[in-house]
Amino acid sequence: MSFVIDGVRKSYGANEVLKGVSLRCEPGQVHALLGANGAGKSTLIKCLSGAHMPDAGTIQLDGEVWTGLTPQRAAEAGIAVIYQHLSLVASLSISDNVFLGRELRRGPLLARAEQRRRTREALSSVLGPGHGLSEDTIVGDLPIASQQLVEIVKATSRPGIRVLILDEPTAALSDREAGKLKDVVRRIAASGVHVLFITHILSDVFDLCDRITVLRDGVVALDEPVGSVRTEQLTEAITGRLPAPRRVAGPALSRRRTPMLTVSGLSGERFDDVTFTTHEGEVVGIFGLVGSGRSELLETLYGARRADAGTVQVGGRTVPRRSSPRAALRAGIALVPGDRARQAVFPDLDAADNVLQPAFGQLGPPLLRNREAERRRFAAGADQVRLHPADPTLPAQAFSGGNQQKLVLSRWLAAYQGVRVLLLDEPTQGIDVGARADIYQTLRSEEVLTGRTIVFTTSDPDEVALLADRVLVLVRGRIVAELPAEPLDRNRMLHLSHLGILDPVPTAPHTEGASRP
Amino acid sequence: MSQVKAADVTTAPHGDGHGEPGQRWTAQRVGALLVRNSLVIGIAVLLIVFTSADSTFLTVDVLKNIALQSTVLAVVAVTSTLLVISGEVDLSVGSLEAVSAVTAGYLMAASGWGATTAVLVGLAAGAAAGAVNGFLVTVVGINSIVVTLGMGNIARGLTYLITTAPVFGFTEGFLLLGNGTFLGIAIPIWIAVLVFALGGAFLVLTPTGRHIYAVGMNREAAYLAGLNLRRIRFVLFTLNGLAAGLAGVILASRLNSAPPGTLGVGFELQVLTAVLLGGVAFTGGRGRLFGVLLAVLFLNILQAGLTMMNVANAWQQISQGVALIASVGLDLFNHRRGRRALLPWGRLRLTRNTTSGDQEVSR
What we know:
The complex is a heterodimer of chains A (about 525) and B (about 375). With about 525 residues, chain A is an alpha/beta fold. Chain A contains 19 helices and 22 strands. The radius of gyration of chain A is 24 Å and the shape is globular. Chain B has one domain (about 55-325): ABC transporter involved in vitamin B12 uptake, BtuC (Orthogonal Bundle), CATH 1.10.3470. Chain B is built from 16 helices and 2 strands. In chain B, strands 1-2 form a two-stranded antiparallel ribbon. In chain B, helix 3 (about 60-85) runs antiparallel to helix 11 and helix 3 packs across helix 13. The interface of A and B includes residues 304, 326, 344 and 368 of A.
């Protein structure tokens, strides 16, 4: 009676993401799945949830072999996945959400009283006594942590649930909320469900889990009972024994060390009292996990979110507190956002229109375009970022992910003039190795770094080693350490970010939604 | 239960279409070509059918008349195209047309103003109402359908406040606007051509023209690219009000009357029909002005021909509706075929020819 994944392989094109992953979960146990970004965790989950079909391998549940999983078949098999983006309908009550899509009926009518009664039972059996939730509460009125619990109740109250997969459930929670969640997970495991718990936070593993599997580069790098693993072993399994890659060659740092970006005491949604300075020609990495506040920090610097306190200066001049991307751009700050598809790319517009949007108004006489200058800037940018194919008329969606990212990068380098602080949020997430190398080369080139400073966020230790001159470790919205990037002590960096020790960790303030127009 | 052996899992999807035999590819390309030029083909078919029904249909006079009939719609369709590409919609243009026409007409007929100043004030009224739409959508943040639906009612009501009876008795100069000719061509046609040219130039030659597509396609990305979302959309609403005003005074001049209760009623839906028939995506970000021009001509040729053939008004309206749905449906069908996976039966048909087809079908 167990949940066995055997030899699962998955490639996207030429890129083999899972190279034969096997693991075995026992009922009643909480099984931790760890791994750096790109190790294959998400792909494995997608193979289990039926979102993607593996190229090879089997999934066995209590002796039955399940292949060709689709989302429906995964549900039939009793596999439920809780993603970070919850799938609840905010305007419905808890009981309506729990029974969404499998409503109870009495004849042609909805058996609402029965649904409410069963939801009430499920809430107290899954969450334990004193959970304080009413089945009639509208989900949208609940804080995120409670919504997550509702999602778990919804998943586990389906008949035949046998496997519960949680994708970094504690990333966005405060310590107290995380503690409550862990209690719930323990209770679910105790009822005989297999729990696969994906996390970046080592304290979760040691508090909660019975067994650990670490993925690295699509293979299992470690698979041990929790009791027999030390943290050094874990971080090593996550990062690998290989020495940190050498930083991409770049220009020597300017001797004068002119401060370019000065952030002091900046606080906002999900980050608090952030202070740092970067200099002309310098590349600074912000190492932070999901939920560390890294995206919020960059978006606030760029004026897309409101800062609660603190100041931002570029070249000695203060950026107004009530900022906007337009005001930030005037001050010389630009952002390559973290979510390419949602925040950066215009899929049906051609490459030139994607690159030149902010630059159109800079090139011609007032209110007019200058086609010749546009053509030259696009070509210069395509050359600089090694765009492939360098065709200005191709729609953005025809490019690979890596080349779409190059389009966005080119927008602020060759096209729009006046960027002195370039912010990049997870610049190589979901990008193939070749394009990644191109982007590193571009970002560390003399041409780009002259008169500019770069600040990027990442959760990939190798990216820090390759790209950064210096790294700030961001844990739950606070910078807990500053480390040199050469030589980079990867174990120390991971240790700090996963455990979040050094400073007492503040409870992440809970605020709803970003302020956007 | 469908539990398959492990070996069956290895299913590389074959039917992605690119490497498929020439015949299908050609058929698809021809299909795409037909769909892309469906309006040109549609206009040609209409001309052939109507000319064969009545040989006097394809004459310069008839065509000139169709062009003249198209002008009011064309003027507003241009600015509405820009607005829909930017992801917004304006349902108040029919009432704004009336406000402008009644204002200008009343100033001339009841207050004895000159034609030029009266027309300018009429246009200003349209633009001002458009600016209010723009303010409410971009600054206050109310959905544009709600704002312009409300504005449509408000503006219609305002025309009744000005006067309840149809306004007539315009100056000679004013009547020239809708009925005069220049170089043998009616002045409204010149105006429509000018508006069309300006709209095209705006889209192609100005930075804002490029921004409109970006704003309509991905608003968050446009915001993060530093575009001025508010200014862009505010300008478009104002221009749309101005164009509605222009259409209103042209119509009043042609009718020699400005009836507050009937002028421009249902016009907003005609405009939207033309814009969408012209291939502009209702969700924003996609569309060409030329397609909308063809759609305006198509709708007016259809109407003129059916009128000539004494087809009942009911059927004229039905045929316009069918044309709209068929055109957008065809476009969608073609789009999906291009992407291959979205239509469930499209996927089945593609995989049936492949080695793993049976399994795919059975899923």
